[in-house]
Every structure is written in C-alpha cells, then in structure tokens.
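Narrative summary of target 7.
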Amino acid sequence: MSLKADVEDLYARYEDGLTAADADEDDHATLERFLESLEAGEVRAAEKSGGEWEANAWVKEGILLNFGLRETQAREYGGVTYHDVLPLRETADLGERGTRNTPDGTVIRRGAHIGSDAIMMSPSFVNVGAHVGDGTLIDSCDTVGSCAQIGENVKLGANTLIGGVLEPVEDAPVIVEDDVSLGAGCRVTSGFVVGEGSIVGENTLLTPRIPVYDLVDEEVYYGELPPERRAFQRFVDSSVGDHDLLPGGAYKPAVVATDVEEETLEAAEKEAALRDN
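Modeled conformation, tokenized:
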C-alpha cells in the first residue's frame, strides 16, 4: 500500500477507537515513515492545483495521528528535559544542504521541512507539518505554525507570526508564496494566502476577517493578498463609531495594497544580498 493509503487506513481505525496503548509496531512504523516524508518535503499539508491552494486532508490526518497514537514522555534535547508526544527534528542534514540555524533557540519540531540554503535565527520555532522553502529567512522571534506553507526566497521579518491550521483537516493552512517579504511584527493567520512577490509592511495583520483594499484591481479581497503587491495596515471607519460609549469615533483595521514600487524592490534586493554574505 502507498503511504497515503496506510495513513488513511490508520486514521479510520483511530476514529473507530484505536488508542496509543493499542497501536503496534507496524502502526508506529507508518507514523515514522510519514514524518520522514514530511521532513524530506515529499508530502505537504497543502499544494497548489489549478491556481488554487488545496489542503491535503490525509496529510493533516497523519499529523493528528502522531498526537493521538503516541504517549507523552520525558525527552531531552541540549541538556534540557521536556515533555511531548514528539521529539524535536534531527538537524544533521541542514548543514549538508547549506542551511544555517543559530544556537540556543532555533527549535524545529519533527515533521517540519526546512529547505536548502535557508536561515533560521534564534529564537525561532517551526511546528510539525510546516514546509519552509529553499533560500528562506526565518528571523529572530519568528513562529511558523503547524502545516504553514512558506515558499522559496521568502523573508520573514523579526517577531513575525505565521499561524497554524490543523483542524478541520479540509481547511488550507496559511500560505506565503515565493519571493514574499514580510516586515517585522507581521501576523498571518487562519489560512490567509500571501501572493507571490508581495512586500508587506511591518506590523501588518493578514487574516480573512480583515479586508484587503486592492488599489490595483480596485477590488476588496478577503483571505488573500494578490501577487506583486505592496501592502500595509491602515484603519477605516467602523460602523460602531457613533456609539455613545466611544467618544471621538471608532475605527477597524484594514489592509491597503498597491503596486510594488521600484525603490521598494531595490530595498528588498539589498536585504537579500546581505543575507547571502
């Protein structure tokens, strides 16, 4: 049977009542093979098909199985004892592929893929099922949530949060496509898709609940930022602005998107050159 069929069969048994105490060696071998395939980038929690990102439900089922069919136990890493169902990911392969991770705080959980020629600055954290592409920078204090899909040559500015989406398994996770630059302090959550080549200003919140006012297409988008945009946070009038309890009015967050200007591209290229040194 294929890995997909094995995972789906195991998940069906889990839904029928299979527990961690009942799981046998063959079941755990399937879980290990699945995690290894995630780490190698052979399977992904979401993929682009026909121009749209779609979740691979069976992959998310496999991740859930690794929680449901394992016991929490004491583990040790770097002289620190912690308690979890999964160990941290082995990192011996990173240096072989030109990827750098600085000491004392770059944490990669099992089942996460880190591409070649990537950089992880400490402290930072990449959760199970996340896929980080080649040449991408994960800066200090960054979090990449479960199943998030980060493209190639992406820059995540310091203190950036990429949210995770595990359940429901049909929901696509956060997507950051190739060549995106997210400024320091950005937050991307709830399955939002950041289009290829976009540059997002610092402290911008991207979530499906906040509208994106695209001045290029003259459209309002929810849950996505079109490709090749320069985006930044702004505040617009709120419908509760005239309430007696809110003197001076009230405003709600919004995102404004425009064309990527030449000087913005040049600044991004200079940052990329510094990373390569």
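The chain has five helices and 26 strands.
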